[in-house]
Design a protein that fits this description.
Blueprint (H helix, E strand, L loop, with lengths): L3 H7 L11 H7 L3 H14 L3 H7 E6 L1 H5 L3 H10 L2 E9 L3 H7 L9 H11 L4 E8 L8 H9 L12 H4 L10 E2 L4 H11 L2 H17 L6 H10 L7 H18 L4 H15 L6 H10 L7 H10 L16 H5 L15
Helix pairs in contact: 3-11, 3-12, 8-17, 14-15, 14-17, 15-16
Amino acid sequence: MLDAYMRRLHTDEGWRVLTTQQKKFDYFVTDTHFRESWRTAVDVLGTHAGWLMQRIALLTLRPEGIIGRRARQCVEVLARLDYAPLHAHRFRYDRMMIRELWRYQWNVASFDRLAVGDRLHYRTDVLSLVLLDVREPLAIPASSRLSRHKGSAFPPDRRADHLRSQLGAPNRIMVVVHCPDEPMDVVRELGIIFERDTLRQLYAKLAERVATGTRVDPEPYISRLYDDFPARSLSVDDAVREVLAELDRAECRNARTGPAAARARAAIMRASEGQYLDWDRWCADLAGCGVDQRSWAVTVVASEYVQHDVPDARCLISRTGRGLWQAGHGRMLDQPPAEVA
């Protein structure tokens, strides 16, 4: 059953303003976060909602981006790509937010990947930036163009000029930045991050800032985040050396913990040779020899070596839709409205 707002998107395939993928719309038409956020956008922006959504992108600097001190470099790269910050928001991921944000991709995630992902996401606050694509005219939506530049979560599939490559994202779990792929994803994600009243204010603020040419400076947010959370290396090799040194010290402290330390060390060696790290078993051995299983180094090692996906599983939504936008399957709204808000 379609509510009035979804019915308008359904009529004459109006959803093509927000996505090129009918499969995505078929999922989102009953997705609470998207439905509420789109209703709010239409209530605040009226017929200009789709126009604005095509011109904004959303980028979140994840905990590893904050700890790894990649935020300033990220903002510099975004400026070179012609993205201007309209809004900055600091928040902390929680369990339900994480699972809702990636609901249609994490259906393939292994339990080990979920567990390590939680450890990572809970580590620090994050910084989310709403960005305006200042290129005119737009060939594809701002979010789709940014999706092209961010690069794949899979390191072998990235080019050197991709944002994740430039920021040194080490693996599929530690990807440094997150960016939704299409306007429809941006709408849904904003509906997850913000309560409705706050979201109403945000949509009105974004429209006003686009109309007036107002921008925000992320630097004060970055400085406070850096003050609040100490820097750490994103290097897997550094993390492996640190954990192995901890295991050596654990063996020296107490002979009774030697077997657990030996098993934990052997698990790292096997993982470096291609065998997946068993997260629960490894944590039990680390605890058994007195090594902090919640340390940053342990999290980095696990992010590289646990099994990421359930074998032969497929994401509910795996395509970005970018190629379809480039092929003209979406509906670009080229003419700016006389009044955005």
